[in-house]
Amino acid sequence: MALVNILHMNPGDGELSYSKNSLLQETAIRNAVPFLKYSIKCIANYGVFKDCITVADLGCSSGTNTLLVVSNIIDIVHEVCQENNLGVPQFPVCLNDLFGNDFNTIFKSLPDFYANLKKNKGEAFGPCFVSTVPGSFYGRLYPNKSLHLVHCANTNHSLSQVHIMFN
Fold it and tell me: What is this structure's pTM?
């Protein structure tokens, strides 16, 4: 069996799950916010934030960190749009991880995530559409020119074939 078909974090939200044991990753995500903000502000200068900004999170795993990354991106885009008097775009968000990832935990947390977005951003906020794309990012996951922002935080260390991705 191929390694990409069996690798995964501990599923669910029990005591030994990734969701309950990912404080180090959460700290890294929070510390990266200034870099993410800088990148998003640079992208905004190219007029990307019109109607829609499609975001992918590679190696999203499951649990609270998954939607923390998405929340950070949405917050920053919202802030940049307000600073530049732009309408807030729609947010198709594609969460990616290996096939063994516990995507059901993510799905179960979406109603609260959507409710918090409406509560914190208001009813007029551009809608967010979360989907999952299982598979290895060593292969093709998305069509050409379909993504505006790709986030990859804690999986870069596992890249041993990066040259293949750029040939």
Answer: 0.78
